[in-house]
Amino acid sequence: NYYGATAQGSTQATAQAFNQQNIIVISGASGAGVLLPTPSMYGVEFTICNRTGNAITVYPPVNGQIEGLGENVGVSIENTVNLKIFAVYSSTYKGGQWYGYKMVASTTSL
Q: In which residue ranges of the chain is pLDDT below 50?
């Protein structure tokens, strides 16, 4: 787990890379990025929690695809939104074919 992460860069090549499964991003400019790791084991779920106050972009690893967005294209997640995502093997996308969903964080006590 990684708490206190910073989203950086504005492209897949300059986004901040992480290897942890659970990442809480607490700082970063609007559009700054986080790079998912190259999958070493398919099916492992990753969670990115955005608490930056801005929308950030989550990028697949090089030659990966998130949903049907296109190879190497990132997905934007708004402030207080969590992204749960996992990769499956793909002969087309060497960085994995990624699937996931967004969850809005609760703003009240649980």
A: none
